[in-house]
Inverse folding.
């Protein structure tokens, strides 16, 4: 299953509702909007790399 990795804009409220008055479709226009500001800087965890490190640590 794919992971949805896009961070919503802090001005995006719901489908069709943007506090900046733009067309609010997060998966389309909002990502290319000049007023786009991500809500939070979320660090993405590379789970594959994390699992490999755990396996190597267990083998040692």
């Amino acid at each position: 299953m794919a992971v949805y990795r896009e961070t919503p804009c802090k001005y995006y409220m719901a489908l069709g509702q943007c506090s900046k008055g733009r067309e609010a479709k997060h998966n389309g226009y909002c990502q290319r909007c000049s007023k786009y500001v991500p809500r939070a800087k979320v660090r993405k965890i590379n789970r594959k790399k994390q699992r490999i490190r755990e396996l190597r640590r267990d083998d040692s």
Observations:
- Helices lie at 29-32, 47-59.
- The longest helix spans residues 47-59.
